[in-house]
Design goal:
The chain is of the alpha+beta class. The protein folds into two domains: 298 residues, Zn peptidases (Aminopeptidase), CATH 3.40.630.10; 119 residues, Alpha-Beta Plaits (2-Layer Sandwich). The strands form five sheets. It has an eight-stranded mixed beta sheet. Strand 4 and strand 5 form a beta hairpin. The N terminus is likely disordered. One of its GO terms (biological process) is diaminopimelate biosynthetic process. It comes from Granulicella sibirica. This is N-acetyl-L,L-diaminopimelate deacetylase. Keywords: Hydrolase, Manganese, Metal-binding, Signal.
C-alpha cells in the first residue's frame, strides 16, 4: 500500500500555562489553530496501519505541551509495528485517566466539495487505487484530543493525577487497540483507573453531546467465507458446480439467521459487504469469496450467528453434492473483531452530570444504542477500568433542522459526503472532554 507523500504541518500554540479559571479563555484562544489543524488532517488522511504523518503530528503536539511521549506503540499479529502514540503527564497524586482519540481514515473518495477536501489516492491491499477520506470524523477526534491535551497541560492547577493521552491507530480495522495492548501498553505506561473518549455523529447538531449508559455499541465480528465449486465452461454448467449460484443461495439463506434463529429481543446484524468471484462472463469459476460483518449485543447472540453461518455453508455444499475437499469454509477473523462497548453506569452518571453542568441540560441528550462498533472498549477491558464513550454533535444546525423537518438524515459516517461543522464541533469537543477529564481527576 502506498502512503500519502504530503506531510502534515505542525500548527502549535506555545504551552504558556494559565490558571484554572482561565480554561475557557485558553480554549477559545486555541480554537482558530485547532480549526486549521483539523483542515490539514482532513486534507491529508491516512488509512489504517499507515497513520505515519498523523501520528507524528499528535506526538509533536503532545511533546510541545510537556507530555512524555512514546510513539510507534502497538504490534500487529504479523509482527509489524503500529503508529500508536502515548503521552503521559503526571501531576501529583490522584487517579490515572486514559483519554483516547483515533487517527485513521477510510478508503472513500470524498465528495463534500469543501475547500479542504481530500484528494489523496492510494492503493489498498488488493492493489486497487482508492480515494482516502476522513469519512468517520477521526480528524475531529484527533484534533479534539490535541486541544484537550493542551488545555489540561496548561491548567494543571485544576486537576491532580496522571493523564494518559492515547492516539490510537487502526480503529477502522478494529485492531488498533488490540495492537497497543499487545505491545504491553499498560505494563509500560501503567494501568488507568478510567477510560474516556468521544465520537462525532451526523444525528446531532454541533454544540451538543449525547450519552448512553450500559451497553452502547454492538460487538463486531469479521468473517471470511469461501464458497467452492467445480469450474468449467459457461455453456455447460451441468458439467460443474457453479459457486456463484451457491454463493447467491448462501447470501439469501443467512438472512434467516437473524429473522429465525435469534431471539427477537436480541438485536443482531449479518451483512455481506464484499463478494468476489470469476474472471470472465463465460467461465464458471472454482470459488467465490465473501467478506461479512456481524453485530450483536451478547456473546450468545454472536455465537448463534457464527453457528448459523457454518451450518448454512455446510448445507449449501452438501445439497450441491460437493466432495469434502470442496466444501465451503467459514473463517472468523478474530483480530478484526471487537467486543460490545459497555459504558460503565456509575461512571456514565458522573460524566453526564459534568456534561450537563458544562453545556447545559438542553444540549445533553440520551443516545440510543447502536449496531455500530468501536474498539475503545478494548482498553477498558484490558485494564479492568470503567469506560465511557460519548457522542459529539457535528452537524450544521440549520442543515440538520431542514433534514429533520423533511424526515431525512444528513450524510452520515462512512459516506463520501459526511461533512462536520468544524468550529463549533471542535469547540464543544474540547470543552466537554476537558471538563470531563478535570471532573474525574480530583
Amino acid at each position: 500500500m502506498l502512503r500519502s507523500s504530503i506531510a502534515l504541518g505542525c500548527l502549535c500554540l506555545s504551552p504558556a500555562f494559565a490558571p484554572a479559571q482561565d480554561i475557557a479563555a485558553f480554549e477559545q484562544k486555541q480554537l482558530p489553530v485547532l480549526v486549521d489543524t483539523y483542515k490539514q488532517i482532513h486534507a491529508h488522511p491516512e488509512l489504517s496501519h499507515f497513520e505515519i504523518n498523523t501520528s507524528a503530528l499528535v506526538a509533536a503536539e503532545l511533546r510541545k505541551s510537556g507530555y512524555t511521549v512514546t510513539d510507534h506503540v502497538g504490534v500487529y499479529p504479523d509482527g509489524s509495528k503500529a503508529f500508536g502514540v502515548v503521552g503521559i503527564l503526571k501531576n501529583g497524586s490522584g487517579p490515572a485517566l486514559l483519554v483516547r482519540g483515533d487517527m485513521d481514515a477510510l478508503p472513500i473518495t470524498e465528495e463534500t466539495g469543501v475547500p479542504y477536501a481530500s484528494h489523496v489516492k492510494t492503493k489498498n491491499k488488493a492493489g486497487q487505487e482508492v480515494g482516502v477520506m476522513e469519512a468517520c470524523g477521526h480528524d475531529v477526534h484527533t484534533t479534539v484530543l490535541i486541544g484537550t491535551a493542551r488545555t489540561l497541560a496548561a491548567n494543571r492547577s485544576a486537576w491532580h493525577g496522571t493523564l494518559m493521552i492515547v492516539g490510537q491507530p487502526s480503529e477502522e480495522t478494529i485492531d488498533g487497540a488490540k495492537a497497543m495492548v499487545a505491545d504491553h501498553l499498560f505494563e509500560r505506561f501503567g494501568k488507568p483507573d478510567m477510560v474516556i473518549g468521544l465520537h462525532d455523529t451526523n444525528t446531532r447538531a454541533a454544540g451538543t453531546v449525547s450519552l448512553a449508559a450500559g451497553p452502547a455499541m454492538a460487538s463486531s465480528t469479521s468473517v471470511d467465507v469461501t464458497i467452492r465449486g467445480i469450474g468449467g465452461h459457461g455453456a455447460y454448467p451441468y458439467a460443474g458446480r457453479d459457486p456463484i449460484v451457491l454463493a447467491a443461495e448462501y447470501i439469501v439463506q443467512i438472512q434467516t439467521i437473524v429473522s429465525r434463529e435469534e431471539d427477537p429481543r436480541e438485536p443482531a446484524v449479518v451483512t455481506v459487504g464484499s463478494i468476489h468471484g470469476g474472471t470472465k462472463r463465460n467461465i464458471i469459476p472454482d470459488e467465490v469469496k465473501l467478506e461479512l460483518t456481524t453485530r450483536a449485543f451478547s456473546d450468545q447472540s454472536r455465537q448463534v450467528i457464527l453457528d448459523g453461518l457454518k451450518q448454512i455453508a455446510l448445507g449449501i455444499g452438501t445439497t450441491a453434492g460437493l466432495p469434502p475437499e470442496r466444501m465451503p469454509t467459514v473463517t472468523v477473523q478474530e483480530n478484526e473483531s471487537t467486543p460490545v462497548l459497555v459504558n460503565d453506569p456509575a461512571l456514565s452518571a458522573r460524566v453526564r452530570a459534568t456534561l450537563v453542568a458544562t453545556l447545559g441540560a438542553a444540549n445533553v441528550f440520551d443516545e440510543p444504542v447502536t449496531m455500530g462498533s468501536e474498539d475503545v472498549g478494548v482498553f477498558g477491558i484490558a485494564a479492568k477500568a470503567p469506560t465511557v464513550y460519548f457522542r459529539l454533535g457535528a452537524m450544521y444546525p440549520d442543515r440538520l433542522a431542514t433534514a429533520n423537518a423533511a424526515g431525512q438524515l444528513l450524510p452520515g459516517l462512512h459516506t463520501s459526503k459526511f461533512e462536520p461543522d468544524p468550529e463549533p464541533t471542535l469547540a464543544t469537543g474540547v470543552k466537554s472532554l476537558t471538563a470531563v477529564a478535570i471532573s474525574l481527576l480530583q
